[in-house]
Amino acid sequence: MSDTSEIQTRKRKHLEVCLQEPVEYTRLTTGLERYRLLYRALPELALEDVDLSTQFLGKTLKAPFLIGAMTGGEAHGGRINRALAQAAEELGVGMMLGSQRVMLEHPQAQSSFQVRAVAPSTLLIGNLGLVQLNKGYGLQQLRQAVELVQADALALHINPLQEALQAGGDTDFRGLLHKLRGLLPQVEFPVILKEVGHGLGLEVAKALAPLPFAALDVAGAGGTSWAKVEELVHHGRILHHELVEIGIPTAQALVECRSVLPHKALIASGGIRSGTDAAKALALGAQVVAVARPLLEPALEGPEAVVAWIQNFLHELRVALFAIGARTPAEALGRIEKVQ
Predict the structure, then answer these.
(1) Which positions ≥6 away from 217 have C-beta within 8 Å?
(2) d(Cα 130, Cα 48) in Å, to the nearest integer?
(3) Which DSSP symbol is given to 97?
(4) For a Cys staple, 59 with which of 123, 126, 274, 331, CB 3.0–4.6 Å?
(5) Is the dihedral of CA 137, 142, 143, 145 positive or negative?
(6) Dist. CA 79–CA 277, nearest whole Å
(7) What are phi and psi of 288, to 5 degrees?
(8) Taking Cα atoms as reference points, which of 162, 284, 270, 177 lies closest to residue 226?
(9) DSSP code, position 69
(10) Residue 328 class from Cβ within 10 Å (0-12 exposed, 13-18 middle, 19+ buried)?
(11) Could you tell me if 299 and 310 are in contact, meaning their C-beta atoms sit under 8 angstroms apart?
């Protein structure tokens, strides 16, 4: 078991670095700029006809939007998570918690993840690192991660590059597909597999095809590089400038995963910064999008600031769908072309 003060210190430094340092990719982009939405001058609908509501993981979201995984288990984590959860509840969007390992190993950290009281109807997604299956975790821990926070689903994140650059990171990713084949059929709640910002590509999608995941979060490159975050946390500077730029751009990850898994629900995250980005992601085959780091600073201000940010994002998404003649997020599919 990890020392609680060590985990809390690392999580606090993660927040500080994400707020204060240039943690985004500098060479890789999301690739969304290489695509153009197909404008329709006669959309044959009114703006108010655009209905953003979306069915996802058995719940109706008022928009195809998730607040992405961020934090928990340190001094500011509870305040941030409650602000995010209040905003999610008010707007009818979903929320994914930060990694819950700290609360399973140190119960005193549980309160920073428990947001159900302020978000009774929100689609709430728990979160654990898949590599923990090689550290003794199993069905019991997966169930605890969901039950202790009254989550609706669980995300299992994979992050080999981040772990390799984290001081004391867990880097044994052997045999995880085999463990998943035995574990997933026993789980009674939806399970998502997600990267953390370096992308799910074609070969991984093929390997995952037989497994009963409810959705995949492609979490592509172009937004926050968690390899860069770890180097800044550990060294105070970037030591390996090429290494921290490794990843599959978000647009490419979406296209590759969709080509292999045409009927699997896909979450687009990784550098989704605007409603137009979201419209492009939906047009490329995502069912919902997730946004994390841009909401961190508003969350420190309070739920009102988070609501304002998301409302502006969703207004842009609604107008973008209107401009391509899409009455719903699902109708955006295919209304896009590659320009370079």
Answers:
(1) 155, 192, 193, 194, 195, 200, 266, 267, 269, 290
(2) 42
(3) P
(4) 123
(5) positive
(6) 28
(7) -140, 165
(8) 162
(9) P
(10) middle
(11) no
CATH architecture of 4-338: Alpha-Beta Barrel (3.20)
CB 155 within 8 A of CB 187: no
User: Collapsing DSSP states into helix, strand and coil, what is residue 84?
Assistant: helix
Written as one letter, the residue type at 146 is: V
Kindly state the percentage of the chain with pLDDT values over 70.
Answer: 98
B/e letters for 277-299, b = 16+ CB within 10 Å, e = fewer, are: bbbbbbbbbbbbbbbbbbbbebb
Beta-bridge partners for 217: 194, 267
CB 87 within 8 A of CB 303: yes
How many Cβ atoms from other residues are within 10 Å of residue 21's Cβ? 15
> For residues 152 and 58, what is the distance between their CA atoms, to the nearest angstrom?
9
11 pLDDT tier (thresholds 50, 70, 90)? confident
Spatial separation of the C-alpha atoms in residues 14 and 30, rounded to whole Å: 22
Instruction: Kindly report the number of other CB atoms within 10 A of residue 256's CB atom.
Output: 21
Torsion of CA 40, 41, 44, 49, to 10 degrees: 70
pLDDT higher than 70, residue 37: yes
Q: How far apart are CA 116 and CA 121, in angstroms?
A: 8
**Mean pLDDT to the nearest integer, 209-236:** 96
Percentage of residues in the chain with pLDDT exceeding 90? 92
In 180-335, which ranges are E strands? 191-195, 215-217, 265-268, 288-291
